[in-house]
Amino acid sequence: MGVDFIYISSIVVAILFVSIAIFQVLLSLGYPLGEFALGGYHKVLPKTLRIVSAVNALILLCMGFVFLQHSNVVPIDFNFLPTNILVWVFTVFLGINTIANVASKSKKERLVMTPLSTIAFILCLLIALS
Prior knowledge:
The relative contact order is 0.17. The protein has one domain. The longest helix has 26 residues, at about 5-30. The chain has helices spanning about 5-30, 45-70, 85-105, 105-130. It is mainly alpha-helical. Keywords: Membrane, Transmembrane, Transmembrane helix.
C-alpha cells in the first residue's frame, strides 16, 4: 500500500469520526435519533446517555486527530502522542464496536451504524498495519 492510500484513508477516517461526532452531539442535545445508537432502546436519550453521547463526541474528535497525526496529515513538530499505540487501541475498539453494532437489537442501528463502523475499522486496520 502506498503512502497516498494511507494518507487518504486517514482523512476519510477523520471525516467519518467527525460525522459520527456530530451525530453524537445531536443525540446529546435531545434530537430523536436514539434508535440509531446505544442499542436503540430510546428514541430520545435520557440525560445520563446524553452525557455519554457528549463524551463520545469528544473521544471521536480525538480519535480523528490521532489518525491525522499518525499519518502525518497534521504534522506536529514534536510527537506528544504515542500514535502507534493509540491507533491500535482505537482499531481494536472499532472492531469490538462493529461486533456490538451487528448484535444490536435495533434494526436502524444495524443498518446504519454497522456499515460505518465496519468501513472505519477496515481503514483503521490498514492504517495501523502500514
